[in-house]
Design a protein that fits this description.
Elements: H1 3-12, E1 16-19, E2 25-28, H2 35-43, H3 45-53, H4 73-88, H5 93-108, E3 122-123, E4 126-127, H6 142-146
Antiparallel strand pairs: 1-2, 3-4
Helix pairs in contact: 4-5
This protein binds iron/sulfur cluster (SF4).
Iron/sulfur cluster binds next to loops.
Length: about 160
């Protein structure tokens, strides 16, 4: 796959790809990139940089983060997905929105901590992977579910 195909593939998969300040390549949401994506971006870095520099429509979010505080398209999409996911877990809509807002900031800060609410093993009030998480029991309270942490059992919900 050449750089144009890679760019189309990433955009089609919901990523925003743009030139970063300082001359790099910005892909958002970076947390959703697979190892294969990262390798392909590294392999085509020079070609991607020149393509992005000559493709003015490549970044429809040019007025959004990181150029301003406004959420860009990828952030908005992820925000909506998270609000839905958290409300399905029994979180009130306003609290789900506040949590999703916190996670936008977390992602922008490239903070690698995650919350149980984002984990594939989380069910309301309990963890389905508590042994890998090194917990003594499967109960997970509301406060813990929203706490940012580095859990060895974490698996991102798809
Ligand atoms: S595996 Fe870890 S992050 Fe996932 S629900 Fe259990 S305690 Fe939370």
């Amino acid at each position: 796959m050449g750089a144009p195909d890679l760019l189309r593939h990433l955009c089609g998969a919901g990523f925003t790809v743009a030139l970063a300040e300082g001359g790099g390549i910005r892909v958002a949401p970076s947390a959703s990139l697979t190892d294969a994506h990262r390798q392909a971006i590294r392999d085509h870095r020079a070609e991607l940089l020149s393509l992005l520099a000559t493709w003015p429509d490549a970044d429809p979010d040019r007025w959004c983060w990181p150029h301003s505080e406004a959420m860009n398209g990828a952030e908005l999409e992820l925000y909506a997905k998270r609000v839905q996911q958290f409300t399905r877990c029994g979180i009130r809509a306003d609290a789900a929105e506040a949590m999703a807002d916190r996670l936008v900031i977390r992602d922008r800060d490239q903070d690698d901590r995650r919350a149980c609410l984002e984990c594939a093993s989380y069910r309301p009030g309990r963890c389905g992977n508590y042994r890998a998480a090194r917990l003594g029991a499967n109960e997970v309270g509301r406060e813990m579910a929203a706490m940012l942490q580095r859990c060895p059992g974490f698996q991102l919900t798809r």
